[in-house]
Batch of 2 targets.
Target 1
Amino acid sequence: MTIHLSRCSFGYRRRDLVLDDLTLDLPSGCVVLLGPNGAGKSTLLALLASALRPRAGSVTLGDLDTRRRRDLKRYRRQVGWLPQQVTPVPGLRVREQAAYAGWLKGLSRRDAWDRSLEAIERVGLRELAERSAAQLSGGQLRRLGIAQTLVHSARVVLMDEPTAGLDPAQRKVFRSLLDDLKDQASFVVSTHQTEDLADSYDSVVLLDQGHLLFQGSTVSFLDLAPGEVAQERRAEAAYAGLVEEEV
Ligand SMILES: Nc1ncnc2c1ncn2[C@@H]1O[C@H](COP(=O)(O)OP(=O)(O)OP(=O)(O)O)[C@@H](O)[C@H]1O
């Protein structure tokens, strides 16, 4: 099941539209969300997370429509969101923070606590379960953020630049984590890093200035690069071709 955006518009200020009449079907699997700075990626993820409400249009998952109050809770339970900054909750240990996130999504205290252990285990934080969340490194905090989405068994996990600021070794850890979790949920991941596209993602969404420039399989995206471009540079060349065409 996928999230469907239909004719969505959104602006932070009355006159400016950051997303303009956007229609998009997010397929299951791993989707990478690309676009220049200010394209609207974080805004789109916040709309998909139902943290922001579109000015016009709809966001639906199956028969759940975020415009309907009675659907919102169920929708939010199915959709996990990892914003750019994962904030440690003051006074909470790693496992407690994962459990707290599940409780906020509507699990009972007991369920949230029980599930939190498996969630932190899946992201490799089992040994740090009793450590204060405030003492985690940036990469560990992001892993805790992912665990928070796993506690409530989100079917779609939205991640906003999860690898920004991570060193190459940590980025590799993140990629293999994503690989491990693919059987559990679908992922929509925004990033500026195009080098690992072919290995990690099934499809690509490219936004620029709130408009959709491309949506399709990773293979068809890479095919947009000129034939002579080497394999490891094809994503970058395809991206540049589409964005420059737009300027
Ligand atoms: N809270 C806000 N109030 C007003 N304008 C905002 C706010 N957040 C974002 N914007 C504006 O909305 C537009 C889209 O921003 P957004 O953060 O969604 O882009 P992005 O593609 O995620 O960018 P980046 O790659 O730099 O993170 C930008 O013009 C930005 O200045």
Target 2
Amino acid sequence: MMKAREIAVQALREVEVNHAKSDTALNHFFSITALEPVDRAFTMQIVYGTLREKMKIDHVIKQFYRHDYDKMDIDVKNILRIGAYQLLFLSKVPRWAAVNESVELAKKLKGQFLGNLVNGVLRNISNNLESVDFSIQGGTFADQIALKYSHPRWLLERWISTYGFLEAQNIMEANNLIPRIAFRINRLKNAPEKFQQKLLAENVTFRKSILPDFVIPDRFFDLEPFLSTGEVSVQSEAQALACRLLNPQPGQKVLDMCAAPGGKSTYLAEMMANAGQITSLDLYDNKLEDIDRLASALGIDIISTIKHDATRFSHEEGFDAILLDAPCTGTGVLSRRAELRWRLSEADLAALSNLQYQLLENAAKMAKPDAAIVYSTCSIEPEENQVLIEKFLNAHPEWQLQSAIEILPDEFHEVVHDKGYISLLPGKNGFDGAFSARLVRKA
Ligand SMILES: C[S@@+](CC[C@H](N)C(=O)[O-])C[C@H]1O[C@@H](n2cnc3c(N)ncnc32)[C@H](O)[C@@H]1O
């Protein structure tokens, strides 16, 4: 049976060779291997941590590996990476364990010779941890900062010019932290206060959120049993804010234009007391099945999923409320989507903001006269957010932005920008980076 570190190496191979998402790869291996919750947590920690800190880890390994690192077998490379990650970042793992476990894994997967190689490199790193060089010889200032925070240079240069040097550092620091996992209490099954009492009675420790129907448990696995009963679902609080801003009412006809995997559609349904109609669009059958599965686990039956390109969907009667949670670069959630920073390019940004604009224009066509549209992303790039909204409002003077202050209760006002939209940077207020704006027609 595979153990934590072996699963980590297999998952990292899937991410690098087959371009899988790290959480999808991990969930696959967890579904075929029985691991204790604590071992699952450790596996996630080393996979996500290794992906986030990859630039720094590779820089260190190259100091102790004298051959062509780029040509190294991918599994050996990932065994070295997870070993180096433990040595550099996990003070609770004894150094001898980080080295020995990696060596045994290399022998098991790749034979004695490569086991010896892993032993040589990791032992060397372990013996020289205090004198490892964390600078790039002859590199520019930007190169050194990129290495310090393990981010691609183009991204950090972009954030420095958008947010300034200090804020850019704060963003990168937050991106390297373990993200907090919040659970949404399904109010169709329990009143939030009652569910929290139930957790306390079972000695589950948790923190409250500014969202009264959310809890953040100290240990993820304490809430796992309630996922299967449909009493909770996992959702980032920043993402939930977009739904709160739409503020749908029971009985309304709501459209969720880019809906999979259904986190927001299902929250909208819970807010509507499972009364009314929600049409949830997405491009792929398998993703629509995810929405159906989640809705059914949560006891929701007002969601109809439709496979359709939302730039071309039309609806004669129109909708009372439209959520456009647009496909985006995801630069607000790089701590959760650990591999994403290495996959993104500036070309993605241009293509996505083009698509987002088309989606928004189509949303406007499907909105009833007094309907609201909420446009949201998990990006922190102005071109996908406020700049795009300004462009839309300039081209469509009959629309205006309605301030989130008018919709959200007082305790949320600290996350509302002066201009009335919600704009969050990673790590600020404990949230992910996200954007949402509510648009309505002028009277
Ligand atoms: C940010 S995710 C949505 C997350 C979802 N709202 C939630 O909270 O669970 C964006 C989704 O848009 C879908 N998508 C991308 N282009 C689309 C299009 N042209 N029409 C409809 N859906 C699209 C993607 O397949 C993806 O599932």
